[in-house]
Amino acid sequence: MASTRFDFSKWPPALSDTQLEALTLYATTYALSHSLLYLPPAQFQPPIPSSAIHAPLSLFPSPVPRRLFDLARRLQSSYNILYARIATDVEFLDKVMGTVEGVGRVDDFVGQLWMGWKRLRDEGMIQPLQLGLFRSDYLLHAGAGGESVSLKQVEFNTISSSFGPLSQRTAVLHRYLYATTSYYNAFPSMKAGDFPANDTTAGLVEGLAAAHAAYGAKGAKILFVVQPGERNVFDQRLLEYELLEKHSIPVLRQTFDQLATSTSLDLSTRVLSIAGAEISVVYFRAGYAPTDYPSPVHYETRFLLERARAIKCPSIALQLAGGKKVQQVLTQPGMLERFLGDADLAELRATWMEMWALEEGVQRARDAAAGLVLKPQREGGGNNVYKEAIPPFLDGLPPAERAAWIAMELILPPEGMGGYLVRSGNDAVRAEVVSELGIFGWALFGGADGTVEEKEAGWLVRTKGKESNEGGVATGFSVLDSILLV
Ligand code: ADP
Ligand code: MG
Ligand code: MG
């Protein structure tokens, strides 16, 4: 059937100033009432928080073609299994991320993590099971010419995949705005069925609870490892409350600094405990960036947790599997087959952009700079080099460090799409935007029989102003959003 093509440049529909003001009031009040919140910057906050601000948000959901949303969700199961298998392929990870042949040679952070993992492997690890709470991120790709819009993967996150609970709330916020205002009939074909359900909190917690059950100790607690001064606490706390309320599993929250003195590890059983409570699962919402390890003690704390019997989410192996280098190596012939056998992989592969190792194609990167992004092995936003910044960056990059970077073709989102974005304390602004879709999933794996227990776990949309290369709600460039199926 020939489907009518959605015209992204006509989005969002026009509203009057009065309508926009009313919608903003409905949205911010709803957000403040429903934990769609952030802590204000530290200078406005006593040590024990006494106030919160609403998270940055979009007033309208963003249009996503139904077939591409269905595709992204369908692929999640394959991605869950793929990354579970990568994390258990020690030979592959050593080669790609290790300090002998891999990225660890030139990237100190990757090298530190890999060497710590290697040392623990040589000593003998006690817990084969690993848990991943993943998020596969995509942009819509309009391409150069008249072809229809397609789904392209930005990256696959294996550590600290955030904004599950807040994006669930953003989806409900948009449903509420529609139910309350009908969006002033500015887009008359909109119907309630075009707002997909989004059950991230229950989905992600199901993964944590599955790992807790697999650990199998009555009275044990789950440990959340968090950053000091974290402003996105409500997104984390909502997981914690769900664990307690729906699964009767208590949670402890600690920073690496606190863990350096609070933990004890029984050397014969490798049971990890904190203040007398046994820890079943260690869930990292910290530890993904070098700044989380300001001293060798911080690395030693990470390795102590890795040594323990508790199930790690993620293990160091799974964290390394999430490196951009792995994403690039997967595009090489035969690599996907190594992990997923002879399943029909065309659909999965069709979501990838062209990628190559920077060390193997510096001139190619210079020539193609206008349509390219360079990425190092980092998470959390703000680390990539784009377009015209690439040639001068390459001029200054010591050749030995090229091995730490990959080159990736830029995804080209539909031109002219707009949004109404609201930041705490400000009026809504209409801006040209780009929306990034993330699909959450979890996997529990590593047992002797090789099975991977896995599920899709809801979705996220973050929308950024078009002029900003990077997304990242936490880094201040984008807002939380949801989906209107078109
Ligand atoms: P991080 O792990 O730091 O989030 P990403 O690979 O997600 O790194 O890159 C950060 C942001 O840069 C993305 O959210 C997206 O906005 C932009 N970006 C990354 N890769 C591409 C690409 N190939 N095409 C267009 N934009 C990209
Ligand atoms: Mg990202
Ligand atoms: Mg990332």
Automatic annotation (TrEMBL):
ATP binds at residues 155, 324, 375-384, 386, 408-411, 436, 464, 470. GO terms for cellular component: cytosol. It catalyses: gamma-L-glutamyl-L-cysteine + glycine + ATP = glutathione + ADP + phosphate + H(+). Binds 1 Mg(2+) ion per subunit. Pfam families: GSH_synth_ATP, GSH_synthase. One of its GO terms (molecular function) is glutathione binding. Substrate binds at residues 135, 159-162, 230-232, 236, 285-288, 462, 473-474. Its EC number is 6.3.2.3. Keywords: ATP-binding, Glutathione biosynthesis, Ligase, Magnesium, Metal-binding, Nucleotide-binding. Pathway: Sulfur metabolism; glutathione biosynthesis; glutathione from L-cysteine and L-glutamate: step 2/2. The keyword Ribonucleoprotein does not apply. InterPro entries: Glutathione_synthase, Glutathione_synthase_a-hlx, Glutathione_synthase_C_euk, Glutathione_synthase_N_euk, GSH-S_sub-bd_sf, GSH_synth_subst-bd, PreATP-grasp_dom_sf. SUPFAM superfamilies: Glutathione synthetase ATP-binding domain-like (SSF56059), PreATP-grasp domain (SSF52440). Its cofactor is Mg(2+). It comes from the Eukaryota. Residues 221-321 form the Glutathione synthase substrate-binding domain. It is an enzyme of class 6 (ligase). Homodimer. PANTHER family: GLUTATHIONE SYNTHETASE (PTHR11130). This is Glutathione synthetase. It comes from Mycena pura.
